[in-house]
């Protein structure tokens, strides 16, 4: 049955930035599809997400760690393997944003955003990829890119640079690892209703401008990513490599 290809039974997933927003919705969706999920929280506990997973009959494990620190990636992989014994799916969702005009942008903000949004994605993918190659079973890596992987944005130079890097890293890793049956793909969300976009939602002018451009006529909700995440994590996407899937209400097609 074709629908069986979307099931994730007996799979183990690690979702970064799963305390709320996009990561929480993705983690719960993977669990509903059958995966056991390690839920990572960067600065907030992922306990609420783990509870939501357990409420739908799933298995979850909370882990925390600051991804602006180089050593955190290794700790997250180690803790996931210690709890579940394997890792089949990595969702690189954790991210941060710092807003300021480029002429005023601080080195500290630049470094933090690049570390969390790009460097940690590489470190986690490298470690997960190494595990997947060694165990010989392949796996799925799904990076959360952005429409700003392709557009410059305004007053978010580090975020745009990092998300552009995520798109290119996705393609680079897919080229190397497809032969090992490791699928590396990305989702590029549009304007989603999360804490990250709170400043835009409350700015009357920017909110109106954004909504006027989105053909769907609304902000995206975290649950709008659920289907795409399950698809890219499942056997249904086994011949998809290096692809960046827009979930943007039609923003990029406007």
Structure commentary:
By secondary structure, this protein is an alpha/beta fold. It has a single domain (2-248), classed as 3-Layer(aba) Sandwich (Rossmann fold). It has 8 helices and 7 strands. The protein has a 7-stranded parallel β-sheet with strand order 3-2-1-4-5-6-7, sandwiched between helices. Helix 2 (47-55) links the parallel strand 2 and strand 3 (60-64). It starts with 11 loop residues before the first strand and ends in a 7-residue tail after the last strand.
List the helices and strands and how they pair.
Layout: E1 12-15, H1 21-32, E2 36-41, H2 47-55, E3 60-64, H3 72-84, E4 89-92, H4 107-135, E5 139-144, H5 157-177, E6 182-189, H6 198-202, H7 204-213, H8 226-233, E7 244-247
Parallel strand pairs: 1-2, 1-4, 2-3, 4-5, 5-6, 6-7
Helix pairs in contact: 1-2, 1-8, 3-4, 4-5
Short précis:
By secondary structure, the protein is α/β, with parallel strands linked by helices.
Strand content: 5-15%
Radius of gyration: 17 Å
Poorly predicted parts: none
Instruction: Name the strands of the widest sheet in spatial order.
Output: 3-2-1-4-5-6-7
- Run of helices and strands: EHEHEHEHEHEHHHE
Q: Which architecture per CATH? A: 3-Layer(aba) Sandwich
Question: How would you sum up the major sheet?
Answer: 7 strands, parallel
The CATH topology is: Rossmann fold
Mean pLDDT rating? 97
Keywords:
7-stranded parallel beta sheet, 254 residues, Rossmann fold, globular, alpha/beta, single chain, 8 helices
